[in-house]
Each structure stands twice: as C-alpha cells, then as structure tokens.
UniProtKB/TrEMBL annotation:
InterPro entries: DUF7030 (IPR054294). This is DUF7030 domain-containing protein. It comes from Aldrovandia affinis. Residues 8-70 form the DUF7030 domain. It comes from the Eukaryota. It holds the Pfam family DUF7030.
Length: 138
C-alpha cells in the first residue's frame, strides 16, 4: 500500500550531494561513500522543478533549524533526490537477539526518493529510499 505522491516540493525530505564534494570522475559503484546530506525543503522559488533557476530553502538534518539556507539545485548539486510517497518496505528486524541464526524481515515505513537533479548521464537510473527511523551522522 502506498500513499499518493504530493506534487509540491515544500515539506518533502531530500538527499543530496554537492558538486564540489565529489571527484570529477566519482564512480557510481562507490555511491555509499559519497558525502550525502539530508533534510527537508522549506520553500521554493518556482513550482516547476525543471526550471534551471530553481532555488530551494533547505533545512539540513545535521544543522540547527536556524541554519536554513537557499541553494541552487541545478547549479550546486550533482545529485538531488526528493521523496515521492510513503510506502511499506521490507528490512531486517533490528530488535532480534544477537546471535540469532534466522534473519527476520519486517515491514517498515519508507520514503522512495526520485531524482530531481543529476549531473552525469551515468546516474540516470539512480534512486533510493529512506526508512522511517534511519539517520546518518556526518
């Protein structure tokens, strides 16, 4: 079961990688080592996400709420992923006792992420998801 996607950008979660934080020829196979940042979009300059002048007012998870900033999605970022809808996804049950030989899978709320900005053609198939209680300290 999935909840229908909201068309607006404001209030949605995102994952992104700044252009200068990746080596020019960063390998897609090394995606887990890229310097990802996450947060929430608080405002936008345009309703059309394809507009090359699009700027978004973001609140990054790793900064205090009063450190929000305007960013240029199509100029400053190599990858900018935006939540699409809430779904149920299977993941490993972290509440299992250690040493258990059976890996139990449970359903968990997750946000599939859609590509809003990409710099390289090789990233065309890039997508991702964020589970309901996932957090990553940078």
């Amino acid at each position: 079961m999935a909840v229908e996607a909201r068309p607006e950008l404001v209030g949605k979660r995102f994952l992104c990688v700044r252009r200068e934080e990746l080596a020019e020829l960063a390998e897609l196979a090394e995606i887990a080592s890229w310097r990802w940042r996450s947060g929430v979009v608080r405002a936008v300059t345009h309703g059309d996400s394809d507009n090359p002048q699009l700027m978004v007012y973001v609140e990054f998870d790793d900064l205090d709420w009063d450190k929000r900033e305007w960013v240029k999605v199509h100029e400053d970022y190599r990858v900018f992923l935006l939540e699409s809808r809430l779904v149920w996804a299977w993941r490993k049950d972290t509440a299992q006792p250690q040493g258990s030989k059976v890996v139990k899978q449970i359903e968990w709320p997750a946000l599939p992420l859609l590509l809003l900005r990409r710099q390289e053609e090789e990233e065309e198939g890039l997508s991702g998801s964020e589970a309901g209680n996932d957090s990553r300290e940078n």
